[in-house]
Amino acid sequence: MEGEKRKILIVDDDNFLLDMYALKFSQNSFEVYTATNGLQAIEKIKGGLSPEVLLVDIIMPEMDGFEMLEKINQDNLSPNSTKIILSNKSEQKDIDKGNTLGVAGYIVKANSTPAEVIDQVINILSSKIVVPKK
Predict the structure, then answer these.
(1) In this chain, where does the modification 4-aspartylphosphate occur (predicted)?
(2) Pairwise CA distance, residues 33 & 49, whole Å
């Protein structure tokens, strides 16, 4: 629908980064929701939030990003959300683990400005557009 904002749930325990990304995404026509750990994010989803995008850090207290994605997949929560990891963990084993959890993209924080993160998220969403079968 024209003018409808895309919902994004940003999950990161760094409040400074969380606020900065929330501001930047809201300035780019996203309806932004935030959580500071995986448990909080899952509670928001169980409470009815259905984001188009889950932008998830890996290293967080209580429940890290990988555990959160495993739980979301296991319980079939938010099955239509595009899952993207945004983390400073950039080892191949972490990227591979993200791929096994069904992430559509893996963005390394240290390599990307906030504007580049937004561009990458939009590009990932654009590449996922599927024409429905008739």
Answers:
(1) 57
(2) 9
DSSP letter, residue 133: P
**What residues pair up with 86 in beta bridges, in sequence order?**
107
- The pair of structure tokens assigned to 72 is 């979301």
97-104: Cβ within 8 A, 24+ apart:
97/66, 98/66, 98/69, 101/66, 101/69, 101/70, 101/73, 102/69, 102/73, 103/69, 104/128
Q: Residue 4: what pLDDT?
A: 77
Q: Model's pTM, two decimal places?
A: 0.91
- Of 51, 64, 77, 66, give the one whose Cα is nearest residue 106: 66
Complete domains list, the chain, with CATH: 6-120 (3.40.50.2300)
44: pLDDT strictly greater than 70: yes
Contact 52, 81 (CB under 8 A): yes
Contact (CB, 8 A) for 11 and 56: yes
